[in-house]
Amino acid sequence: MNSQSNLEDFAAYYYLKALKVVLVLDLRTFYKKAVSDLFGVIKTEDFSGEFIDLFEETEKSIHVLISSSPNISVLNEILQDAYTLAEKVAMIKPSALKRLMRLRDNYQDLIRKAINKSLILSEALRLGGNVANLTCPECSKLLLKDLDFCPYCGIELLKCTVCGAVIGGNRGVVVCPRCGEYTHSKCISEINNKCSKCGSNLTEKNSLP
């Protein structure tokens, strides 16, 4: 049994590690697109050909920096520098400056969400693959033991008070009639059919349909 559990934890750890690699690649692609969009605003303005060539070379150089950046904080610094540069160029073009500001605002929330997801996976790897055989009932992604929200689809993760597994899927659930705590139907016998939070009696009558 332990051998099977260790094998599953091992597989789960490397699943997360592979997912982290994919996410980092996706993040870099995402940052490159953000930079290209910033310079795209500048290049649509009425600048001379020499300036356009300079913008394109600068954009390529920034893409190279993004590809070789070691972590997210460096990616953020590169993107901020790119925005500052584009903003200074756009100072002489008020219409371009307004478009840059809108673009920056649109990207801020997307970047925050991407970083949060990356940090969650980084923490999973730092803990050595501290994962359980849990899946999100909404999107079916593999989850860490201690998450309160799914980092993929964002739903709140309700947990069984006995086994700690995520509530959902095809496992029966009993809800305490007094305090609303969730417990898997198969787990209530382990706590003498009493709610672990308030002590109320739990029966199959309290099961969710």
Q: What characteristic shape results from the CA principal axes? A: rod-shaped
State mean pLDDT (0 to 100 scale): 71
**Quaternary structure type:** single chain
Helix content: 40-55%
Give the termini distance in whole angstroms: 32 Å
Give the total of beta strands. 4
The percent range for strand residues is: 5-15%
- Residue stretches low in confidence (pLDDT < 50, at least 5 long) are 1-24, 119-133
Instruction: Compute the number of helices.
Output: 4
- Order of strands, main sheet, comes to 1-2
H and E string: HHHHEEEE
Global Rg: 25 Å
Structural class: mainly alpha
Largest sheet: 2 strands, antiparallel
Tell me what the structure shows.
The protein has 209 residues and is mostly helical. The protein is 55% helix and 7% strand. It has a domain at 2-126. The chain contains four helices and four strands, in the order H-H-H-H-E-E-E-E. The strands form two sheets. Strands 1-2 form a two-stranded antiparallel ribbon. Strands 3-4 form a two-stranded antiparallel sheet. Helix 3 (72-90) packs antiparallel against helix 4 (94-126). The radius of gyration is 25 Å and the shape is rod-shaped. The chain starts with a helix and ends in a 25-residue tail after the last strand.
How are the SSEs placed, and which strands pair?
Layout: H1 2-43, H2 49-68, H3 72-90, H4 94-126, E1 131-135, E2 142-144, E3 173-175, E4 182-184
Antiparallel strand pairs: 1-2, 3-4
